[in-house]
Amino acid sequence: MAANLFLLAVLTITTFSLAIASDPSPLQDFCVGVKMSPVFVNGLVCEDPKLAKPEDFFFAGLNKPGNTSNPLGSMVTPVAAGQLPGLNTLGISLARIDFEPYGLNPPHTHPRATEILTVLEGSLYVGFVTSNPGNRLFAKVLRKGDVFVFPQGLVHFQLNSGEGDGWRSRR
Ligand SMILES: *[C@@H]1O[C@H](CO)[C@@H](O)[C@H](O)[C@H]1NC(C)=O
């Protein structure tokens, strides 16, 4: 979910300032994350590369639906450094989201990541809101195979509104 390009424009009466920053480029091939460490760092500390094994770069089970029996009627199944230690420092992750009819992934942001989403089954009403000034809503009903991007840092949501193909047949 992360394309780590961060763009900030600051405009005042007298100055125009543009800053571009990103996560630092890895200085090694990989940094398999160790969850329990006495050292506090910005991220997870690296396991000794000599100890790395194929399983550190592997996750199984994304074919399984998440349990949507909760008040929101949705469940996010993340595949991030916590689930797949080899993702640590690479600036990208993946998730599966399951929705009941009218299930909602409520408005939220990822301050340091752009998110791109595709619909594998059913339909989904998705959108994001631009920052001040303006607060424009960009929203669309997606169907199977459609792709939508939520730009970095912008508030976004997903709702199974049942407006598309496949929704009624799944009830
Ligand atoms: C799904 O979550 C609900 C509520 O927490 C729970 O009662 C139910 O047993 C869970 N179902 C499965 C299949 O895990």
From TrEMBL:
InterPro entries: Cupin_1 (IPR006045), Germin (IPR001929), Germin_Mn-BS (IPR019780), RmlC-like_jellyroll (IPR014710), RmlC_Cupin_sf (IPR011051). Oxalate binds at N105, H110, E115. It is found in: Secreted, Extracellular space, Apoplast. Residues 60-168 form the Cupin type-1 domain. Keywords: Apoplast, Disulfide bond, Manganese, Metal-binding, Secreted, Signal. GO terms for molecular function: manganese ion binding. GO terms for cellular component: apoplast. The keyword Manganese applies. SMART domains: Cupin_1. The keyword Manganese applies. Residues 1-21 form the signal peptide. Disulfide bonds join C31-C46. Pfam families: Cupin_1 (PF00190). Mn(2+) binds at H108, H110, E115, H156. Belongs to the germin family. PANTHER family: GERMIN-LIKE PROTEIN SUBFAMILY 3 MEMBER 3. This is Germin-like protein.
